[in-house]
Specification:
Pfam families: GntR (PF00392). The protein is an all-alpha fold. Helix content is about 45%, strand content about 0%.
Length: about 60
Amino acid sequence: MMEFHLDRGSGVSTYLQLVHQVKQALRPGVLRPGDQLPTAREVVESPAINPNTVLKART
């Protein structure tokens, strides 16, 4: 399962960090189109992200 890592001091919004990490995983083939991403609940549990932020990144 894909794990997300956030850099709160980067100045990049949380949802954009999530989007960028998914895009970066697609490039080398770590993720393929159609692969299942973690649920919003699973993402929120690990790095303590607001659920609305996760849902925004998934759209």
